[in-house]
Amino acid sequence: MSKTAWLTLCASGVFTCGVVYYVHTSQAKDRERLREGVIIDIERQQQKKRQNVRQLALQSDLTKILREQQKQYDEDDRRQRENGSGS
Prior knowledge:
Its main location: mitochondrion. By secondary structure, this protein is an all-alpha fold.
């Protein structure tokens, strides 16, 4: 085998090994990024769920306050009508 053919064979072997290594590491990194994406999505969903629960609790508290205010308003209105119509 001539020296040129030997160098060409070695160069193509090194190039092939480099390409295989690059593709392997690239695929491994892509799989890791996909896993991280799933984990980030799960965390985002859990955070959104916690935020929704906090908002629901706040809405519930506000509803209770408004109902109490409405009840007080209705009682005051009823008293005024009774006092106004009874005089």
